[in-house]
Specification:
Layout: E1 3-8, E2 11-21, E3 27-33, E4 39-42, E5 44-45, E6 56-59, H1 68-74, E7 83-87, E8 90-96
Length: 100
């Protein structure tokens, strides 16, 4: 299982990645705190069907997840965003998954 290091306003965390699928088949990336095994965050959001290709994810890089996009790029989990989807007051970055 791959682990990454994430710096947030709340501290530094070592996180393991779990890949899952949303109900519509899109990839979900769940982050688990390595120290206590508790869920830390879900790094992705589920967007409308047909907006993502099979190897793409919509990254939640706002609110409590602020900074997670940079962490995932630096850890070579996702590529730099190539598109954005407007959702309410935020733009959600769309990234291609790297060889995970």
């Amino acid at each position: 299982m791959k682990t990454i290091n994430h710096k947030s306003p709340f501290g530094e965390f070592e996180l393991s990645l779990q890949f899952a699928k949303y109900g519509n088949g899109q990839t979900a990336i769940k982050l688990i705190d390595v120290i206590d095994g508790m869920p830390f965050a879900t790094a992705t959001v589920c967007v409308e069907d047909n907006l993502l290709k099979e190897n793409e994810v919509a990254i939640k890089d706002y609110s409590e997840n602020q900074g997670i996009l940079d962490t995932l790029i630096n850890a070579e989990i996702v590529e730099y965003p190539h598109a954005f989807i407007q959702s309410g007051f935020v733009k959600i970055p769309i990234c291609k998954l790297k060889n995970c």
